[in-house]
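worker-03 picked up job from queue 'complexes'. Input manifest follows; two sequence lines, order preserved.
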Amino acid sequence: DAKTTQPNSMESNEEEPVHLPCNHSTISGTDYIHWYRQLPSQGPEYVIHGLTSNVNNRMASLAIAEDRKSSTLILHRATLRDAAVYYCIPPQGGSEKLVFGKGTKLTVNP
Amino acid sequence: NAGVTQTPKFRVLKTGQSMTLLCAQDMNHEYMYWYRQDPGMGLRLIHYSVGEGTTAKGEVPDGYNVSRLKKQNFLLGLESAAPSQTSVYFCASSSTFGTGTSYEQYFGPGTRLTVT
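worker-03 finished. Artifact:
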């Protein structure tokens, strides 16, 4: 399995941008990089995915390094509701598995 | 749409007892999954199904059985519960399959199981 490295935790203030980094240096194949998040006491939810170039959706932006060995999830204006564990899920060569590591716990301060 | 629902929400079992967790989805998704999440850990895939009548083993299948008799339901069974199976169980479904696509899985709220 491809391995990821994410900070255990990060803090942000409300309405400020947040950059959540992920290192997936052992990336294999040409599959998508996915990000999910898990709000307290809930199941994970999909955030965004990308292949090679930067991607935007209503929830976040995803910046992918040119060599695809790292990516950064960007929340443009953090809200209290964005407090969650964020999982960076690297490509797995077409695998059925979404490999969830320990993720980054984001705390948003009012 | 209710999305993905799980029954029950909580359960306490004694070692050796059996139980079935029910997952239902109303999105007409072909693919369904069962995960477990232990404290402070990420999710691990137990079993999955690529269609009605099919099941396959995931990362940690031992001690569990599954069935997918109807497209909308995916059942997870514990035949003889052990304390090591104390965990939160999440069901998910998706319309696509594999990390080679936009792999958006929709998760249920979870079942918190304690085995004493």
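worker-03 released lock.
Residues 10 and 62 of chain B are 22 Å apart (CA to CA).
The radius of gyration of chain B is 13 Å.
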